[in-house]
Amino acid sequence: MQLDAWQDGDLYEPYVGRWSRGVASQFVDWLEVPPGGRWLDVGCGTGALSETILVRAEPREVHGVDRSEGFVKYARQHLDDPRFDANVGDARSLAFEDASFDAVVSGLVLNFIADQGGVAKELVRVASPGATVAVYVWDYAGGMQMMRYFWDAAKDMDPAAREQDEGERFQGLASLKGLGGLFDLAGLSDVRSRSIDIPTIFRDFDDYWGPFLSGQGPAPAYCASLDESKRAELRELLKVRLPTKSDGTIRLTARAWAVQGHRPVDLTAD
User: Fold this and answer.
1) Are 26 and 196 in contact (CB under 8 A)?
2) Helices 176-185 and 116-125, packing angle to 10 deg
3) What are the tens digits of pLDDT across the range 184-219?
4) Which end of the chain is more exposed for a tag (fewer CB within 10 A), N or C?
């Protein structure tokens, strides 16, 4: 079972994609990159962050890179903007020359890539001197409530689910301290961190539960691995625990941790 496999944009959007756009808007505004810049979106997925950059940051161009052919295809089909291009690629070995971009960003992906320190250095490598380098990841341990409710219920039903819980697996990185430390090690200057909170409102329980049946991503893959009786047990446990309003809506919060820094300018260079 490939828990971290992401391939289908149509399945990703109702699960996480619809919520990532709210985070991306606050993230891009916080960076304050001057208009006319050349951007690289590493792990661009379905294009949520790239689309936000195009709308809010007035870039000259935005290049997206993702290891998933399905996601790159989805981004190309849904982002009809001549300033945007996306290609399949590896964040650990970016196919760009040194100092190529005015802003290098990555949203909701760094925790899924091995050798995160090496990836951070690769992000810095392709950034121009003085350029912005920034990433954000979900607060899996507490603030990404739709996942937290799911995994807490799953672990109460099945203690073995702890091994697949993103809050357990990514606790070292998915925090302000973890991200900030990674950027310090990558040699960035003026490193700043913040949390980004957005509301996640589900119209009813099925709107919450349905995306977990897709089988794509850690929590949906775990859900798909259960037999019918266990899946029904988990479903009923969540129905009891989720804070449902009188109108049937479920109002939760999604929190992401974000960090930005700048590639140092070598004042001694000619």
Assistant:
1) yes
2) 60
3) 999 999 999 999 999 999 999 999 999 999 878 899
4) C
